[in-house]
Amino acid sequence: MKKERAWPQFIRNLLIMVGSRSRPQLRRPTWIIVLVSIVCVFLIAAYVYPPRSPSSCSLFSSSGCGGSTFDLPPAAQSRELTDAEVESRVVINEILNYYPVITKRPKVAFLFLTPGSLPFEKLWHMFFKGHEGKFSVYVHASKDKPIHVSPYFVGRDIHSELVGWGKISMVEAERRLLANALLDPDNQHFVLLSDSCIPVRRFDFVYNYLLLTNVSFIDSYVDPGPHGNGRYIEYMLPEVEKKDFRKGSQWFSMKRQHAIIIMADSLYFTKFKHHCRPNMEGNRNCYADEHYLPTFFNMLDPGGIANWSVTYVDWSEGKWHPRSFRARDVTYQVMKNIAYIDESPHFTSDAKRTVVITPCVLNGSKRSCYLFARKFFPESQEKLIQLYSNSTIF
Length: 394
Prior knowledge:
By secondary structure, this protein is α/β, with parallel strands linked by helices.
């Protein structure tokens, strides 16, 4: 302890000594020498006696002054979180900070949400062929037991429940598919597809696109109109505020980390189960499959999602349902145009009918947005197979 106090005392004595002399007695060069000496003493003292507090920043520290020491404090919460919110966020943060185990051969899980048999199973068979070991297939058929024509789909049906359009049962089916796919530790990315979905790229392109990025492709945007924020109801408070309410396509593609978070969530899922449904108060219709995941990830991991879906759908007609493609609509040029779109449009439902454009940027570079597309009529399968066999756009 005596040694530690020696240098500071020496510095004080030096300052007293210098201060006790009158300036006229010292010439200018002498003052410069004294000042330089004081600076040198301070530097030597800082090196020999660095700060003892672990939260302090030493001038000579090998790590410098970086890290979290001088980071700005997190923004203050506008309100106190409930116990349930605190518990939920602890679990979610732990999962987000968890570094997943790297598997020898990671797979993409393809989750088919369908009422019965898959009309494009032959096309999907061509898509999967030759890539065994890189993918898994799971089929949730909500009405009829599927009849499969491809060996890749045989035995891949999971326990299913009846699904009502626009109801929470749609989200429950998505969670059921994710839960079954998560049982396989090699499944590292999860793609939700409908019975009207087709691939618009080759398997290798899709595989690399999904596994070589660290985000989930979950659509999430602000729609100030009646079919967006107009669906919000105050019963979601305090956990879900109107400013956080988002809309997006249900056809997600997500990394394993986010799939686990969905399995862990009960708080926010319950809020949407009870307060986002058709025929709510005031004849308002809220559809959980369009709002639950966009809102959930916007609140809890906004930097971890791309804010667009990799499944293309054409809303340009401005109708209640998107455009459907018949066999006569399927041409080489149409498929090429879809495959090379590099901006994702979002249409608001307010009076302005604004189109919000999201550039599709991955790892700092603009990329094609879409790997899949919907809604295609079953009659278009043969034409699609012909294009798939003879063109390079897929």
